[in-house]
Amino acid sequence: MESGIFHTTYESDMALRRTPLMRWRIYLIVAVIVILPFFGNSYTLTLANQIGIVAIGAIGLNILTGFTGQISLGQGGFMAIGAYTSGVLAASLGVPWWLTIPIACVATAVVGTLFGIPSLRLKGLYLAIATLAAQQIIQWAIVRSPLGVDAVVVPPVTIFGTSLNKLRIGPFGGSDFWFYWIIYLFMFLTILFAVNLFRTKVGRAFIAIRDQDIAAEVMGVNLFRYKLLSFATSSFIVGLAGALLGQYRGIVNYERFTIETSIFYLAVIIIGGLGSVSGSVYGAVFMVIIPAILSNLGQAFSSSAPAIARLVPFAQQAVFGLTIILFLVLEPEGLAKIWRDIKDYFRLWPFSY
Amino acid sequence: MDKFLQLTLTGLTNGAIFALVALGFVLIYKASDVINFAQGDFLLVGAYLTFGLISQVGLPWSVGMLIAIVVAVLLGIVVERLVLRPLIGEPIISVIMVTIGLSSLLRSVVIWIWGTMGAQFPSFLPSQPINVFGAVVPADRFIAIGLAAVLLVVFTLFFRYSREGIAMRATADDQQAALSMGISVQKIFAIAWSIAAVTAVLAGIIVANITELSFFAVSSIGLHVFPVVILGGLDSIPGAIIGGLIIGLLESYVGGYTPSALALRTVFPFIVLIIILMIKPYGLFGEERIERV
Question: Are the beta carbons of A311 and B107 separated by less than 8 Å?
């Protein structure tokens, strides 16, 4: 806290941004986000869009895993439900894209709740393994079962009847540019929802379940109801990320939604910070940027030192594994904690605490 | 009937391999309450390392296998010391994720050195076909079943009579109490991890011997461990063996009697897993834990 700030009303004391510095920081971040697409080229926009989608998915997973303490290895499967629902509706039934997204979210929430039912009896390890099974079963159902579809080509997204590729305002336009606004609008809404969720009764019940579920039950939290609610809320947001990914990529195939995806998202929230909304966003930025830097390095070396360039795919996987291990061993609370420590250092300087 | 017998024998062999992998998994869980997602990758390391030593370096197979086992022991100790020990007392998700990170790391090393292409593994186990009541099965598959049976007996005796085995059970039961009785919990963890690594390496060598050395075939076995250990009970050694055999048989029958286009074979173990978790979460032989606040 900065000095010289006195809250004289409960409203100001309970506000999300309690000090001018916090407010200014938000204005700055919003300004950067608004300005970025006008300066970025198509590559940076692709990265930014990826970050946005990963951040939405990570917030969804964090609600379930970080805030409610229910470990889920089914993230990839749930995202697949969102992506395929949205894709199939748009491709086969001709439903407009903006309508497929909420339908996809609801469908994912329903499936997520269904697979959340075992959470009443299972916890910890057992639940993690149950969600792993959910992942495998969903993947099988999508690819191999009689109702299965393999890959879906999603029709291009249109606004007022014009395809996004052709829609231009001055020098700006194209699919990446317009999707940037769509994705970041949804990301903004998701963040707003998640941050406020944990100031409500429901959100506090989630946290109580995470910290000590039996104690929570004794205090009158209906475990079954709130665990299912957590699965539903989380899957709803995860479905949103899946649907956005499907619409943005224009093609939905199951390779994007395997167990690797589930592990990737768990890594995002571990590295960002479990139980932290802003941490999910930091984690998303980190986990999208690092592989991109590595592959750029690879391209830079591809002519001068092809031996190094060939190492890049292994390096990406090794770095992925190593980052997870190092974060867990050295800073289990993730980037959110590191950022807090940095702020504390400057706030308390020249004293150490 | 022939088909049934053939499927049964294939199922038993696959089951024996699952059981071997699950054995290491259960051992680690029993000793240190850690779920090891990298168990399948130890398999990979073992198979490729043996392949490298025998086919690429040109060592005789007995020496190659011995070195692979020694490396496995060292790997187990190093992993326990550097990765798992700092996480003692951390929440379950951290422990799960750290083994997942380890799995990714081991995998990248294997890909880096050997690539993902399949290779012809030097088959040193005898593979002449043996005729069992009309079904023809290569001999090396029986070695897999035999090895699983031998290890089952060895580990059961180990946990019952040996000093380390009893200390391991004590550690699993209550770490603090074990510490105050003078048991070196760190040593116990190291032993558990090395034994687990060795069983995985043995399983990897057998898998590579029976089929061929392929990255995807070997690494997919790692996932099969979960249905096996849940069915058998996470902390039960007989459970790992019997669970392995049951899952192997079920998978084989489902694969043989349902249309192959459905690929039910791949998903069936996980359906079993969900059903078991719903009706008997501690598995067939697992110890039920009572939770206290």
Answer: no
The domains found in chain A, sorted by start residue, are: 38-348 (1.10.3470)
Q: Which residue has the tokens 């964090």?
A: A62
> Under an 8 A CB cutoff, do B266 and A140 touch?
yes
Q: Are the beta carbons of A270 and B93 separated by less than 8 Å?
A: yes
**CB contact (8 A) between residue B111 and residue A332:** no
Q: What string of pLDDT tens digits covers the 353 residues of chain A?
A: 566 778 888 887 777 777 777 788 888 988 998 888 888 788 889 999 999 999 999 999 999 999 999 989 999 999 999 999 999 999 888 888 889 999 999 999 999 999 888 887 777 788 888 888 989 888 888 887 776 777 888 888 777 777 777 777 777 777 888 889 999 999 999 999 999 999 999 999 999 999 988 899 999 999 989 999 999 999 999 999 999 999 998 888 888 898 889 999 999 999 999 989 999 999 999 999 998 988 888 888 777 777 777 777 788 888 888 999 999 888 888 898 898 888 888 888 888 77
The SS3 call for residue B131 is strand
ipTM rounded to 2 decimals: 0.85
Please give the C-alpha separations between residue B130 and each of A280, B9, B10, B89, B141, in angstroms, as whole numbers: 57, 11, 13, 51, 10
Across the interface, whether the CB atoms of B108 and A144 are under 8 A apart is answered no
Determine the residue of chain A that is closest to B96 in CA distance.
Answer: A125
| Residue of B96, B270, B271 with shortest CB distance to A128 | B96
Q: Do B226 and A263 touch (CB under 8 A)?
A: no
From chain B, the residues in CB contact with A133 under 8 A are: 226-227, 270-271, 273-274, 277
**Kind and range of the H or E element at B49?**
helix B39-51
The model carries a pTM of 0.89
How far lies B30's CA from each of B33, B175, B188, in Å?
A: 6, 11, 11
Q: Please tell me the distance in Å from A352's CA to the nearest CA on chain B.
A: 26
Chain B residues with CB under 8 Å of A259 CB are 223
| Domains of chain B by residue range | 2-279
Topology annotation, domain B2-279 = ABC transporter involved in vitamin B12 uptake, BtuC (1.10.3470)
For chain A, strand residue ranges (E) read: 152-153, 158-159, 162-163, 168-169, 172-173, 251-252
